[in-house]
Amino acid sequence: AAPVYVQSCCTKGVACMGCAEVKGEQCVRCAGGYAPQEIPALNVSRCFMCDDVPGWHDANGTTCAEYQASRRCGDGKVVAAGEGADLPFEGVRPSEACCACGGGMHSPTPIGLPLNDRVLYINESIASWPKPVTSDGVELNAGCALASAGLSMSAEGVVRGNATGTRSLNCDLTAFQDPVRGLLGTATLSVTIENFTYGYRSLNFTFDTFFADSPRISEYKVRKDSRLKLADFQMLCAPQVDWVQIDETDGTVKFSPGQDAGYPP
């Protein structure tokens, strides 16, 4: 049987946009708030964030929800036969008002960029996908200095390369989710490169319950190029905390039970 993926771990490119279930290379079920529709003129079907036009109904009082429930519309098309299948009422057709019929009000799918939460070290090799991939036509703003950091972005928004030099940079990203209807997703890509890192911009010690003895991640190790030699690590905290310690030899930051019963704050 073909593998089935949920949205959180979908690896099938732009088919993941707004999709709750993928089989093979195709989305077979859109997530809540999304509807399957074809991009006009391109004959490409994707899941789009969509709302029916509020209050619309046809001359018989039939609403968008009833068009879908009666299967007069489905998969972004009017499927009922006959000349009256897509008649306008007060100038608006079902195919213009209803998501299930191919219309409705569309919003761009939000773009998550995991790289924004990371801190890279010099010479780190990366391949970072947006979550989810929302387009196979992604562009960065003119003047974006991503290449100067040894990185590049593919048409699907995947950032690859080997991080070069200590730097921080921001680039504006535009994803052409439906280029025909002008549906554009936007985000800001933030890249930070240091000599050594702990992988993330913030180190989170998260407890599953209030009474848990230790957090789910109890330590963070230094990430660096193997040729870089470091020693004598120190950590300065303001305010002072006694439940996080650093190994002076290798720099590992560890959770360590404090003296107070209510650690950490």
Give the topology.
Layout: E1 4-5, E2 19-23, E3 26-30, E4 34-39, E5 44-51, H1 64-69, E6 73-74, E7 77-78, H2 94-97, E8 105-107, E9 120-121, E10 125-128, E11 138-140, E12 151-153, E13 159-162, E14 167-178, E15 183-194, E16 196-197, E17 219-220, E18 223-224, E19 244-246, E20 253-255
Parallel strand pairs: 9-15
Antiparallel strand pairs: 1-2, 2-3, 4-5, 5-8, 6-7, 10-13, 11-14, 12-13, 14-15, 16-18, 17-20, 19-20
What does this entry look like structurally?
The structure is a single chain. The protein has two helices and 20 strands. Mean pLDDT is 90; it is low at 1-7. 4% of the residues lie in helices and 32% in strands. The protein has helices at residues 64-69, 94-97, and strands at residues 4-5, 19-23, 26-30, 34-39, 44-51, 73-74, 77-78, 105-107, 120-121, 125-128, 138-140, 151-153, 159-162, 167-178, 183-194, 196-197, 219-220, 223-224, 244-246, 253-255. The chain is mainly beta and 265 residues long.
Helix content range of the residues, please? under 10%
Shape category: elongated
Q: Name the helix and strand elements from N-terminus to C-terminus, one letter apiece.
A: EEEEEHEEHEEEEEEEEEEEEE
What is Rg? 25 Å
Strand segment count: 20
Structural class: mainly beta
Task: Kindly report the average pLDDT value.
Answer: 90
Query: How would a crystallographer describe the biggest sheet?
Result: 4 strands, mixed
Distance between the termini: 49 Å
Parts with pLDDT < 50 across at least 5 consecutive residues: 1-7
> How much of the sequence is in beta strands?
25-35%
Count of separate DSSP helical elements? 2
Identify the strand order in the major beta sheet.
9-15-14-11
